[in-house]
Design goal:
With 127 residues, the protein is mainly α. It has a single domain (2-123), classed as Winged helix-like DNA-binding domain superfamily/Winged helix DNA-binding domain (Arc Repressor Mutant, subunit A). The chain is built from 6 helices and 2 strands, in the order H-H-H-H-E-E-H-H. A hairpin with a 2-residue loop joins strand 1 (62-67) and strand 2 (70-78). The radius of gyration is 16 Å and the shape is globular.
Length: 127
């Protein structure tokens, strides 16, 4: 799935995103997220998260803005360029899921989704 999404993103002009950057991007909330929270959620050091955010900022995918809740803090927020890429990824995910469903059937696909959702509860505490 990941390979297909990255290929679709590259074809649509978003080929400059790495896997590590994508994992960070996925964890940015709609109103922005503090760097320390991103680092913890992505399970990387704050320095690594800062490095990845610097790269994403240069590529135009994120911006740093003041945190309205704390003027001393900053939030990392998605830019229009990043938001425009989300439907590209979503379409490819839907295509792959349709292929899987045709291959294993609706019932098994529903079971797979349910199982993966349940496993996420214990594998991704930052969901």
């Amino acid at each position: 799935m990941e390979n297909r999404v990255f290929a679709a993103m590259a074809e649509a002009g978003y080929g400059d995103i790495t896997v590590a950057q994508a994992r960070l991007l996925q964890r940015i909330g709609p109103d922005g997220t503090r760097l320390t929270v991103l680092a913890e959620a992505a399970q990387v050091t704050k320095q690594t998260a800062g490095f990845l955010v610097d790269q994403l900022e240069r590529a135009g995918y994120v911006e740093r803005v003041p945190d309205p809740a704390d003027g001393r803090a900053r939030l990392v927020r998605l830019t229009g360029r990043a938001l425009e890429g989300i439907p590209v990824a979503d379409r490819e995910v839907a295509k792959v899921e349709q292929e899987w469903e045709r291959h294993i059937g609706k019932r098994r696909m529903a079971q797979l989704r349910e199982t993966l959702t349940m496993l996420r509860e214990i594998t991704d505490p930052y969901q």
